[in-house]
Design brief:
143 residues; mainly alpha; 6 helices; 70% helix
Length: 143
């Protein structure tokens, strides 16, 4: 059982890294010029424009310093615009630019295809069982 426990977490980590590497290569091959993490931030912002930088960091599992760098890169690429917040001098209002929205439209079919590729050969029952297992691990670690 001990060996299985060690293998499980190793395989889980390997699966995540393999998928991210695959997605990053596809982004590069298609000439999108963004990283997986930049995509996750852009997607999260597109789904909720009211998110703070701290909210974004939590949502994409990044620390505040990493999030600051990610946002700066998205601003430099003209995918996100940063402006002073209306009510707080310590916050910024982040909005997706037209160029950012265009990228989201272009990249979304590839993201769907990436997921389909990653889940190829996995049944619905297997996905459900995996999701239940992962939720239990999350609960165990959060309690």
């Amino acid at each position: 059982m001990q060996k299985l426990n060690e293998i499980f977490f190793y395989q889980l980590e390997k699966a995540i890294k393999s998928y991210r590497r695959y997605v990053q290569a596809r982004f590069k091959d298609q000439g999108f010029g963004i990283t997986v993490d930049q995509w996750l931030v852009l997607k999260a912002l597109s789904e909720n424009t009211k998110l703070t930088q701290s909210d974004l960091a939590e949502l994409v599992f990044k620390d505040k310093a990493s999030m600051t760098r990610l946002i700066e890169l998205l601003v430099l690429k003209k995918l996100v615009q940063r402006a002073a917040h209306e009510t707080s001098r310590r916050r910024f209002k982040l909005t997706i630019t037209d160029k950012g929205n265009e990228l989201i439209t272009q990249i979304t079919p590839l993201v769907k295809d990436n997921r389909k590729h990653g889940l190829h050969g996995i049944s619905f029952a297997e996905l459900q069982a995996t999701e239940q297992t992962l939720k239990k691990i999350i609960d165990n670690c959060n309690n």
